[in-house]
Every structure is written in C-alpha cells, then in structure tokens.
Amino acid sequence: MPLKLPDKLPAIELLKNENIFVIDNSRASSQDIRPLRIVVLNLMPLKITTETDLIRVLSNNPLQLEISFMKLKSHTSKNTPVEHMKAFYKDFDLLKEERFDGMIITGAPVEQFNFEDVRYWPEVSEIFKWARTHVTSTLYICWAAFAGLYYHYNIPKYDTPAKIFGVFEHEILNPTLPIFRGFDDTFFMPHSRHTECRREDIEKCSDIQILAESEDAGVCIMMARNGREIFITGHSEYSPYTLDTEYKRDKSKGLPIDLPKNYYKDNNPDNAPLVRWRAHANLLFSNWINYYVYQETPFDISTIR
Fold first, then answer.
1. Which of 51, 142, 191, 220 is catalytic?
2. Is 84 among the residues known to form the active site?
3. Which CATH architecture has domain 3-296?
4. Which of 37, 45, 107, 295 would bridge 79 by S-S if both were Cys, CB 3.0 to 4.6 A apart?
5. In sequence order, what are the beta bridge partners of 91?
C-alpha cells in the first residue's frame, strides 16, 4: 500500500526514481481506507533529506500511512527553504488538539548541549508530554532518544571520548519481541553521535527494557510502556551515502573526523559504501508500524489516551 503524502512534497519524485510507490493527498482521498496517521517532528537541519530517508523506510509495509510534518514555533530552520517549511510543516500549536497513531521524533544537531540549554527544550518537553496522551507509539531517534530518556525517566547522557561514527554490529537481547520479527541474530546500524547513555543508568529504571546493544556503539534500542515509547540511538533510516557526506563535509572544513568504521569497502573512502543495514532498517520500521502502531491503535483515533 502506498504512502499518503502532502501534494508536491519533494520526496515523492525522489522516491519514485527508486521505484518506491507513493501517492499524494489528491489520489489517496479516492481510496476508502482509514490510513494510519503518522506525524514526524523533524529536528534535523536538512529537512528534505530526512523526510526522504524516513519515507523510504516507512514505505515497506502493506498499510496506507498519512504522513504529517511538525515543526517547532521556538526554532527556525536555517538550512531548509522557508517556502518548503510553510508548505509542508505545521507548528505544534496547530496540531496539539489532534491525535496520531504513530510519531517519529528525529535527531538534532544539539547533542553536546545540556538539555536545558537547548533553546527549544521547553517546547520539545511539552511535545514529549503531549505524545503520551495523543499518540499510540512514539519512535525517538538519536538525540531525541537521549532527550526522551532524560525527560521521561531522568536518564543522563554523556559525551564520548571520540565520535561514534560508522556502521556497527548489534546483538538482539530479546529476539521474541515483535520489533525483531524477521531479524537475524545480529544486525547492523549506522551511528553518528558524540554522546551515549549507559547501561548502568538504564538498568536502575525498571520501566525501560534494553532490546539491543553493540560492543562498539553501546546501548542501541530501548523500549518503555509496552512499546508506546521506543528509543533508538542510531540511524537505521540513513541512506547509503549519508555517512560519506558527513565525513567528506567535515574533512573539507578541516574538522577532526575519523574514517567511519565498517563503512567503505576495504576502508577506502574512494570506494563506495558497503550497505549492510538496509534490510533490517526496513524490518525495524515495518515491525514498528505493524505491531506497535497498527495492532495497538484504536479504530476511533479520538480515544487514544
């Protein structure tokens, strides 16, 4: 089943070139189906890139999804055209009376700030609180995962000695959970971050279950409230060349950046990346949609509590 997206969203044409089937609102309205409503709070600087990455992995499921984009009133994006933001994004204030089957909150380029020092922390905190009563299941990615763990459960984050940068192997700790349906015993996921949360802090909180971790990248996937909150410290949604773009960007600026680990063929940046995470990324998002959104959300969306 295709995704229902705002008319003229750039990701539509980009993904059609990858043979991913998406439709705009005009065509979707002719189908007599109640689509699952998914809202994305996109905090990443390059909005269009993140939109495309997320829509790509959300497309691999048999359900119709209606995707909306949320923005912060307390923050203005400097890297995305104003016209794009006005056309496709709505302020939280305009959406907070609505309810959604699922929500995705992305990473943000503020990971080394204390949470309370982030200018938009008060508004993000309000959204975290709102999601608990207006969304069936919320997926927190990278910075959002650390922020959500801190806001909801007082789990601290720590700066890492060096950037966790590359594609890392992860072990599944509870393979019987629906989120891992169809997974192999281990899986790969890209990471690009300067912070971490530590197992010993998480284990003090009985409300949080650690689902997957990496010997090199640390705790990766956590779950709370029976899947109504899922926290992911990595970026399974990344396209093949995202880490390459980050590496070459920082290199050209003379910034300290190591070669992304386990990424380029033969560890040579002149070679193409070796993509080892795509299949599990599709499974992760489709399992989340199927088992934690579709099978848990009420038919009458107004009854979400």
1. 142
2. no
3. 3-Layer(aba) Sandwich (3.40)
4. 45
5. 71
